[in-house]
Structure formats: structure tokens, C-alpha cells
Amino acid sequence: MNNLIASLVELLDPSTVLTGADISEKYHADWSGADPCQPLALLKPKTTQQLSEIMALCHQHDQPVVIQGGLTGLAGGATPQSGEIAISLERMNGIEELDATAMTVTALAGTPLQVLQDAAEDRELFLPLDLGARGSCNIGGNLATNAGGTEVIRYGMTRSMVLGLEAVLADGTVINAINKMVKNNSGYDLKHLFIGSEGTLGIVTRVVLQLQPKSRSSHTALCALNSYESVTKLLVELKRSLGSGLTGFELMWDSYYNKVLEVLPSLTSPFQENHTYYLLLEYKDNNQTLGAERFESALFEQLESGLIDDALIAQSHQDADKFWQIRDGIGELFQVLGPVSNQDVSLPLEQIGPFADDLDQRLKAKYNNIGVLLFGHIGDNNLHVCAYTGRDEDKARINEDIMLMISEYAGAITAEHGIGVLKRDFLALSRTPSEIALMKTLKMAMDPKGILNPKRVI
Amino acid sequence: MNNLIASLVELLDPSTVLTGADISEKYHADWSGADPCQPLALLKPKTTQQLSEIMALCHQHDQPVVIQGGLTGLAGGATPQSGEIAISLERMNGIEELDATAMTVTALAGTPLQVLQDAAEDRELFLPLDLGARGSCNIGGNLATNAGGTEVIRYGMTRSMVLGLEAVLADGTVINAINKMVKNNSGYDLKHLFIGSEGTLGIVTRVVLQLQPKSRSSHTALCALNSYESVTKLLVELKRSLGSGLTGFELMWDSYYNKVLEVLPSLTSPFQENHTYYLLLEYKDNNQTLGAERFESALFEQLESGLIDDALIAQSHQDADKFWQIRDGIGELFQVLGPVSNQDVSLPLEQIGPFADDLDQRLKAKYNNIGVLLFGHIGDNNLHVCAYTGRDEDKARINEDIMLMISEYAGAITAEHGIGVLKRDFLALSRTPSEIALMKTLKMAMDPKGILNPKRVI
């Protein structure tokens, strides 16, 4: 080890290699709640070339490394494990090019997501990737975890907006797969190896993203519905009438909706009566007047058809914000609910309603005084489950119960947060043995010494 | 060999194993023009299980195989090479499920594209993948080659509509990565290994595709412009005003436009004057009246701004068909031009115009009496180049000249047709040595004996 650290100090400038107490606690853990751990050393390369040389040395010394971006991951992938050197990409930061004609942006991996969003906005463009951690997370980490967030229903996950990237392999090889072209079938599309593989197959160092024109108008409504079947039928109808403009379809079960209103007295339900499902809709258009007309007429049609029981269209930004505060109230609920089993899962569309009912029943039969709150991006198959008993010792058991039920319903044990270390033991609940064997084949081929984010994912 | 054929006959029913003259010439070559070759045997498995057993046997005997779908590929990937057994997936044919609520279709790999298109249409849905060979090509081949076609500007390549798949590896292992969920970050997304890798890493046997609601109205216009800069500026403006509804942006250089009108006397230019660029636009909407208004006002705005010199909006299907006949006239040109170097390439958006001018000049300086026709899906970076001298011996030289120029301009040597055998020697013009080395690492890991579509791509 001392040999390696000495070689690294020799290779890099001393400010780039930190050890012991010089490593701030920030680098001991990500946001997932996985147990913190001080890395053997913390390296902060400034260039792809430096990172390549670091990896060549670590490879030579069989030294495991953990890759860190904004440390906002929720699966424990960036929390150091015992004996690992941490490599932070935070200094590899900056936008290299924004091409307003091709609508692309090229940036280094350590660039915060919000910096990219703002740069796009300045040119009347739009990066269709957004999540709560936008100010802290880095675009490299967004690629490594194939981040989801809002607007997936329209624009897809992070993967779908990546045109090209550069990555460093476990042995230091630099893969330059930078590309600004939509159509390119010249050999294997290697970027997909690095997107969503959580840093286990290579380190993303540079990205090219497809931007979109900024929408000129946004329209929001809160609807009430009384059956899950109405929800799925409404999704189909609105996809037909609103087309690609439908950018938000956020379902809240009454349990969640009522709990938020109970805990946040500043919010009140805009509806007179109680309903079983509450749905937040967002529609974007390039024309304010035509957009408002189209949105109103689509909703009116579905009030007439009976799929929607009641609906309120936001008449101002303030109205829209109030609707979103109910949906986003989960953040404040976490402050008061005590220990929560918080799961981010996916299910086939028609299974989400039956799964939710079944889960609610089974958990209530098994645990005393359990609260079960449900909401999700249903248009993307994504359900969020929060279950809490007030007892810390129940959390792991509830997590496992949910994972097992997801397997029964042929769902995905993680929709957007990833596997990391926290769900590694459950992977076989969502994937077949031959799939997992193929993942291991890839890992072995690309990182035969297993030094890159080891024990994450597989 | 005889041992293997005997084992295959024993394994499969005899109608599934053809040899010698029983193999119709259809299976000797694909549509690419690569030299035909009779395979050692032709196998027509009916199930994934049979295909898996075939591959296990071939793997055991180190027997190379070529995978055949609809045989419509243009890169020679499905044309047998000497000593290969051909495996046709044509009997693994049929739709297993069409889920009109989730808007997904699940089908076997040997299902013709048009069958899927029609099934979607019957449910008022739309499969956003279309190409000239729709009646003959199979969906498995579309995935293997990551087919492009029209509407890529809106919906992306085939890859972007694949939710899940099943594939058989070189050793017969079945990878079941069937999935109907938009969000699924549960481990590596293995499907991307098989999409666009032209059958060299595995055989796609079953697919799940995301469908879209069928648009209710379609609007077409033919525009005239006088500079390439106006073309790219117009693309930006129309993306802003028409949003996701812009589904066609087909540019024709005057050389191409005039040649089509010269060769096809049934067509006449709807414009009084000559222009440098002709642009076919298509816009789709979910509302006929609003859609027509929006399209007309967007075009009027750009006539006013001066980006468009002249524009004609189709007033009927007949008008729209006439505009498309000019764009699709290339099919008939091929009948009369003699030997043509026909290249499908991609370039960064702003480079397409300068590249086209430079290519035209250089080819005309080098070859006597050369004709150079240019057109393409510019919104997807895709340029089609047709160059002809009437002399067969020039074709290969012209191909090579174009490939070398693409490399100079940092473009892609193939946009949508793929590498196959025909462009294999040129791959290094578009990809770096470390990328090609990584492709070989993947190939070696997944097909160590090199029996699956050998000598294609890499």
C-alpha cells in the first residue's frame, strides 16, 4: 500500500492525494444511509489523463477503488468499503461546448446537473433530466446510475439523452466514444456498457447530451379518480389527446394524500369530497393559448366520459405550486414518520393497482400499527412505497417483504435508484440466473481483477 | 461435419434441417449485393429451446453459423460465408401479446415488421419504425441492426423503442431479458449488447416494443431554401414551434431533386424557380384543425423571417404523395444510373453542408463525368450519397474516397445500414483503436470460439 500511495503522490500533485484526517467526512459516505467508512486515500484527478494513470497504477497493484461524483446516490454505491481508495471526479468539472444548433451539450463528468440545466436554459433550451439532488449530483453519476426523475414519461431515463461519452476502464484504458450524431451504427454502441452499470465497468469522464427546445407553456391540473382502472384508461386517453406534451402523470393513493395534508397544515385539499386516487397532471406545449385550450378540452372530455371524478386546472403558478407541494410533501413526511422502509420499484402498468392493494393488506396483517403510503410516476411504471411502524427493527424486514412481493409480481426491485450495495443481495429476485451470469461475464472481461466499485450491483 | 449434421437431424425434425440443393437460393445472400454462398446446412428452428440446443451443439463442434431474418440487410451480415451453417428464424414468427393499455407488443424475432405495424394500427396504435423493406424484414433483424428509417427525428432508432428481449448466446444459453417496464435499473441493461451488434454477440429471439398512440392528423409541405445555414436554422425554429410533432425533415440537394424530375417525367416541380435546397417537412398532431393551424403558422413565420424562400403545403393526400414521390424517387433512379456508390453516412449537423460541397468538388475533380446526388434525414445527421460514373470499376474507389472523407470530417461511416462484411475494413475510420479493442473484448467474452456471425462488424 505505501508503495502505491507513494507512487500516486509522485504521479499527481500533492493536493490531489489526501490521506487520513485530511479526508473530509463528506467522502466517507453517500446519501444512501449505508455505513460510512474512511477510504485509504482520496484522489481528485483533474484530467482524464490523470485518472487513466491512476487506474493503471491501481490495476498494477490490485487496488480496489470507489468512484465518487456528487455522493447523492441512494443505493450505497459511492460509499467506500474497507480498503478502498476513493476517486472523486469533482475537479473534472465544466461545460466544454454547448451547440445550440445541434442542441447538444458536452461536459466533464464532475459537472453538477444544475449547471447543465442552467446553461441550457440560457440558450432557450432544456435538459430533460431533473431530480431533487440537482444542485449536488454530477452528470457522470447521473449516467452511471441511469438517473430517472421527472419527465421520464416524455423523454425517458438519462440513457435516452446520451449521444456519446468518454470513459476510463479498470486498467486505465481511455474509451473515447464521444459522438454528437443521432444515427451512428458504426460498430457496437459501447456507451450503454457504462450507463446504468454504476461505475462497475468503467468510469464516465465526459458526456454529450441531447438537449430539447424549451417549452413555451406549462399546464397543471389535479384530478380525483375512484378506481385504478380509471387511472390506466385515463393514461391511454391523455396520451392519445395530448401526445408527447404529457410530461407529468403523478398518482397519489388517498393514504399518501391524506397523510401529507394531516402533517402539513399549510396545505388543504382543493376537493370537497374524499376520493381514492389523486392525480397530478402536467402538459407542456410550445404555444400558450393553443396549449391551454388543448389541455382544458382533453380534461373536459374525460370528466364527461366519467374517467375523472373531479378536476382542478391551475390558473396560476401559485396554484400549480400548491398542487406540487402535495406531491413533494414526502420530503417533509420523512422528518416526522420515524424509521421508514422507502422503496422505489417498478411494475407492469396493470399490476400496479392490484399490487398496491395486496401490499397494503399483507403489511397491515403482519405488522401492528403500520402506515403504508403509496405514490408514483405511474406512466413510467414507477411506484414509491413508504411503510413505517415507528420501530427501527421492522425496517429491514419490511424491505425484504416488499422485495419478495415485487418478485411475485414480476416487477423490478429498483426503478431508478439502482442496486449499489443495498439491494445487491436481492438482485436475483428481479433477474434470472443466466442474466446474472452474463453480468459477471462482462465484469470479468472488463475488470478481471475486480478493482472497480467492487461488490456493487453483482 | 457429418457428425454434427447427423446430430442436428436427430435433434430437430427433418424438415428443420436442409442441405445441398434443398436449400433455396434465397438463403445464399441478403439484399446487400455481397457474393452469394451456399451454406453447409440451413436450419429453421421453431422455438427458442430448439435454437438453444442447436447453438449448444454448434458450440461443442466449433461450427460457425450465420443468422438470417428477412435477409433484407444492406451490409452483407446475413450472407453466408464459406463453411457456415445458416440459421433462419423465419418460423419463430408471431405476436404473443399486444397490450393496448401499456402500449406494448411482444413478438417472436421472425415476425415481419409490417405485421407488427398492422397489429398496432388495428388498435389505433403506432409502431414508430418504418423502412422500405417493411414487408420482408423481420423485427429480430431490425433489432440486430438497430434499424433507422423514417421518424427517427421524433422517436429515435429501433433501440429507443425496445423495452425488453430474449436472446440466445453462442453456447446456447438463453438470456431472458423480457421486460415491459419503462424504468428498470435492476442491474446491467443487457439488451443493449444485442441491439445493433448485428448478431455477433447473441441471437435475438423475442422482443417487447413500446408503441405510441396513433396520430390523428398528418401535415406535409415542400419548401425551397437557398443556403445550408438556413436549413439548420429552420430545423431549430421548427423544433421550437412544432415540438415533438416534427416527424420528417428530409433535405434534397438540387442535384438530386433535378435528376429525379429529369428521370421521372410524371413528376414536375411545383416551384416556378430553381433553388439550391428542397426540404420535405412532415408534422403530426392529435387534432386535425389545431394541427393544420399550427403547421401553417409555423411555416408562415419562417417565410416572413426569410429562412424559407418558398413553401407549398399539401392540401390533400395526393399532394403529399407527390412530394414524397420526389423524395422516394431514388428507388427508380437506381434502375437507370448504372453502377452507383451508394453510401449511408452521418455527420455532425453543421458539417453536413460543407462536407457535401467539398465531396462534390473533390469527386468531380477526380472522376470524369461523375454524377453526385445528395439527400438525407438531416435532422438525424444522416446523409445519403449516390455517386456514379457509369463505370463499374470506379465504384469501389469512390466508396473508399467517401469513407476517407467521412473520417476527415469525424463522421460515422454508416448511419443506419451497419458494418456487416462490406464496411468491416473501414471500421477504424470511425472508431478509435481502444474502442475496437473493447469490441473485441466483448466478442471474446461472449463468443470465445467466434462461431456467431464471424467476420461481421469486427
Written account of the structure:
2 copies of one chain form a homodimer. Chain A is α+β, with helices and mostly antiparallel strands and 458 residues long. Chain A has 4 domains: 2-88, Uridine Diphospho-n-acetylenolpyruvylglucosamine Reductase, domain 2, CATH 3.30.43; 95-213, Uridine Diphospho-n-acetylenolpyruvylglucosamine Reductase, domain 3 (2-Layer Sandwich); 217-330, Alpha-Beta Plaits; 337-434, Alpha-Beta Plaits (2-Layer Sandwich), CATH 3.30.70. Chain A contains 15 helices and 18 strands. Chain A has helices at residues 2-11, 48-60, 113-122, 139-144, 152-155, 191-194, 228-242, 254-263, 288-305, 317-327, 330-336, 352-366, 395-408, 427-430, 433-446, and strands at residues 17-18, 42-43, 65-68, 85-88, 95-99, 104-108, 125-126, 162-168, 174-177, 203-210, 212-213, 217-225, 246-253, 277-285, 310-313, 340-346, 371-377, 382-388. In chain A, the strands form 4 sheets. In chain A, strands 15-12-14-13-17-18-16 form a 7-stranded antiparallel sheet, with helices on both faces. In chain A, strand 17 and strand 18 form a beta hairpin. In chain A, helix 7 runs antiparallel to helix 9 (288-305) and helix 8 packs across helix 11 (330-336). The longest helix of chain A has 18 residues, at 288-305.
How much strand content do the residues of chain A show? 15-25%
Shape of chain A: globular
Mean pLDDT rating of chain A: 96
**How many helices of chain A?**
15
Low-confidence stretches of chain A: none
Q: Evaluate the radius of gyration of chain A.
A: 23 Å
Helix content of chain A: 25-40%
- Give the strand line-up of the largest sheet of chain A: 15-12-14-13-17-18-16
Structural class from helices and strands of chain A? alpha+beta
What's the main sheet of chain A like?
Answer: 7 strands, antiparallel
Number of domains of chain A: 4
Under the CATH scheme, the architecture of the largest domain in chain A is: 2-Layer Sandwich
